[in-house]
Design a protein that fits this description.
By secondary structure, the chain is an alpha/beta fold. It contains 13 helices and eight strands. It has two domains: 114 residues, no CATH class; 162 residues, Spore Coat Polysaccharide Biosynthesis Protein SpsA, Chain A (Alpha-Beta Complex).
């Protein structure tokens, strides 16, 4: 009981820090600030890399084409060697409107990740707008979202404004995995720290990234992150290290329509990049699993063991019971705002340790896939080998 009590105290200290001193990662945030409309909107080109996205485009592309933006706004959709008629579907949805320009990506050079190459092809076709909006093919936009993004960038002098999309939570497994996915992302990259000038934390959310073209070019362009599998975080770091000012929020106006109906689909989504996030390091992998065990596994284990010990009169059972319950309570409390964002019951919050176990397994499996030569597999391609 003494060892378990010490571990529970360590977990409690960790959760106190996360709750009080980690950039309020648990709070979804206020969203984009209110600001007056610019007298004339600067040119914006949305770049949409798309590979085999014909099924989802009817739900998403029209929401982008129908944005009423007070300036010149165009969409460049990059067909990245699709085999399902993605380009034809996009052209049909546009109905000949000049707003959409479909380009076919050239053959991908060695060392480039597939999505980053498609993004670069879109930049090449975009011309010289003031802003580039990198967005995924599965993302739907509420009316006026592009205007609000540009307005926030201009009013607050931001060079990168990114919105974390609200993901789909229709199936049981989506409701289990998705809110925790966003919660863990915010824990790694607290949105307020990303937004704070001078803070080292840098990231973005790949579904919606509005960036000043000149700032991106000055930082080295997409060539500087050509091999990045986690392109959004890499882009955020690139812009911030180049002196750019960033903003990251959780949004209800930007919504992903991509379905993940089965656990295997969600598992692949996480496992394809988890080991890359750990820089493909066995040491970081082992450390991550141990931290997950300490922070998420110890509190409920100490609570249950301590309460059982108190019930049968075991000495020293009060410490693990008390520290474990406090840590578990703080954990659940920090998870509740994310559940509410997804309109899910806060009663799910105490089960977060079980979800963390799944994520630990996904992370280990990500390493297994890497060493099996299947690292980063996505849409029929694997990630380029690290230098």
């Amino acid at each position: 009981m003494v060892v378990l009590g010490v571990l529970a105290l360590a977990a409690l200290a960790g959760w106190l820090y996360l709750a009080l001193g980690h950039g309020r990662f648990w709070a979804p945030g206020p969203g984009l600030p209110d600001a007056p409309d610019p007298p004339a909107g600067p040119d914006v080109v949305a770049v949409v890399p798309a590979r085999d996205e014909a099924s989802v485009l009817p739900e998403t592309l029209p929401t982008l084409l129908e944005q009423h933006y007070p300036g010149r706004f165009r969409v460049v959709l990059v067909d990245d060697a699709s085999s399902d008629g993605t380009a034809e579907t996009a052209e049909r949805l546009a109905g000949g409107a000049p707003t959409l320009h479909v380009v076919r990506a050239r053959e991908r050079p060695g060392g480039w990740a597939g999505k980053v190459w498609a993004m670069a092809e879109g930049v090449r076709a975009a011309g010289e707008p003031e802003f580039l909006l990198f967005t995924d093919a599965d993302i739907a936009y509420a009316p006026g979202t592009v205007t609000r993004l540009v307005r926030a960038a201009l009013a607050d002098r931001r060079d990168l404004v990114s919105q974390m999309a609200t993901l789909r939570t229709r199936t049981g497994w989506e409701r289990v995995i998705v809110p925790a996915f966003v919660y863990f992302f915010a824990q790694l990259y607290p949105f307020r720290r990303v937004t704070r000038d001078g803070a080292r934390t840098a990231a973005a959310a790949g579904g919606c990234m509005l960036v000043r073209r000149e700032v991106l070019a000055r930082a080295g362009g997409l060539e500087a992150i050509s091999g990045a599998l986690i392109d959004d975080v890499a882009l955020g770091r690139l812009v911030k290290r180049g002196g750019g000012r960033c903003r990251l929020d959780l949004s209800r106006d930007v919504v992903s329509r991509r379905p993940y109906p089965h656990l295997s689909d969600l598992w692949t989504m996480v496992a394809r990049s988890a080991y890359v996030q750990l820089r493909r390091s066995p040491v970081l992998l082992a450390g991550t699993v141990l931290v997950l065990f300490l922070m998420y596994g110890v509190p409920p284990a100490a609570t249950l063991a301590g309460l059982t010990g108190l019930a049968v009169g075991v000495a020293d059972a009060a410490l693990p019971a008390t520290a474990g319950l406090l840590a578990w309570t703080i954990m659940a409390a920090t998870y509740t705002p994310m559940l509410r964002h997804y309109h899910l019951s806060p009663l799910r919050a105490p089960a977060l340790p079980l979800v963390a176990v799944l994520y630990a397994a996904m992370t280990v499996d990500s390493a297994r896939r890497h060493y099996a030569g299947k690292g980063g597999a996505w849409k029929g391609r694997t990630a380029p080998s690290p230098p």
